Amino acid sequence: MNLSLIAAMFPLLLKGLQYTILIAxxxxxxxxxxxxxxxxxxxxxxxxxxxxxxxxIWIIRGTPLIVQAxxxxxxxxxxxxxxxxxxxxxxILVSESVMAGIIAITINSGAFIAEIVRSALESVDKGQWDAxxxxxxxxxxxxxxxxxxxxxxxxxxxxxxxxxxxxxxxxILTIIVVPEITHQMQNYAITTFKTIPAYTFGALFYLxxxxxxxxxxxxxxxxxxxxxxxxxxxxxxxxxx
Amino acid sequence: MKKILTIIIVVAVxxxxxxxxxxxxxxxxxxxxxxxxxxxxGCMEGITLNVATTGTFAPFTYYDENGKDxxxxxxxxxxxxxKLLGFEIANNEIPAMNAATITASITEGKVDMGxxxxxxxxxxxxxxxxxxxxxxxxxxxxxxKETSPKEIxxxxxxxxxxxTVAVETGSASHLYAKEIGIKEDCIKTYNEGPxxxxxxxxxxxxxxxxxxxxxxxxxxxxxxxKLAMVGEPFNQEExxxxxxxxxxxxxxxxxxxxxxxxxxxxxTDNKKKKKIEAKWCK
Lengths: 241, 282
Hints:
heterodimer, A: two-stranded antiparallel sheet, 8 helices, B: 282 residues, alpha/beta, D-Maltodextrin-Binding Protein, domain 2, 14 strands
């Protein structure tokens, strides 16, 4: 393994990383919004919204991401006769493939987050509802002041896990020419024929990025545990007083 | 802090492990044999080869209408070679893989012989051997008559960096586009030729550099296509299609390259190759 390969590949991979992180971040943020809406709809009482959510999750979970990406890139613009690219004064700000990638990751992570949100809401003890009611709180008050804070804390690790999955999922977007990490790695390997070193270094690069994310995940989890312990302590002291 | 340290150590260990693996991955020495060529007919009987193609480049190698079998010029050539030389194809199957994968597979010796309208370029010759040319092809620029800028008339226009250029990942045009200095950001690499054609039809890219025969076949067979060729074919002397042979198989059968060349010559002499040409490239 020589250093010149790393020197040549590293800038390429960093460039790819920008796209990977950009797409995964935007994807997870909007995916979270969609996922919450769908998750709440699944738990709610409105049958129509429930049906829409089920339909959405069914479609996304029932098709592979690579097919979704190809579909969004090739078919959607034709169906609605639009261009996915965002242009400003004739200059392309976001290319069509990157936009298609963002949409694909968003709707994909959204469906899985919807399931996470649904199960988190379900996991909150029924007693919390009774407790809320006995205090004379309304449905929305119970939801926003009791259920959601508990549920949200429970889903943070799962949500972060979904983010890590989304980061890795962006590699599939190489099929629609998103210049992310895998795309850079593949292009380098194929034009220089240094297949084994290029893929090895690419894999290590992914491993390093994901490791950093895993460390962040651990830190967040620990913080959450501490706050929940603190609030319990506070609760206990309230009882004592 | 302790945990972070543990994770760092894990990463380091994995890294060293994988690096070591790549070092150890060298092939064990194979016994070299020479094919007896006293009589060309059936001289490779009993030899099994891993043969692969791409299935993405009509009319040379592509899936038939049922999407089940790969057919084309190259497949006919391999059939004739097999009939003549008598070698066996592993599992009686010629797997189709995209251009990037087939080049990597031949480089690493996973595939012994590749027939996929592969251009015998100088870059490729560093990692694999090639037979004599069996078809001369050049590269050509395809544009979309409706969406592509009218300024694109020749290769020179593409160097300006104003237009997006589609290529098939790992194909001769990909290597060529890089070599002549088209800006990295302008080159859009599609994993497979057909996807690039669709992208150009949809106006997602400004042009597509591809092998001439492939483009003309596409224009001929695709109903109401918006595409057209511009400029003259280029890189002609450097895009000869040849049969790729992995270094490994050439080490194992020291004269296999020579045998394949003799066989190709035989097919030319007995007019079989002409027939194949007439069938696919008319």
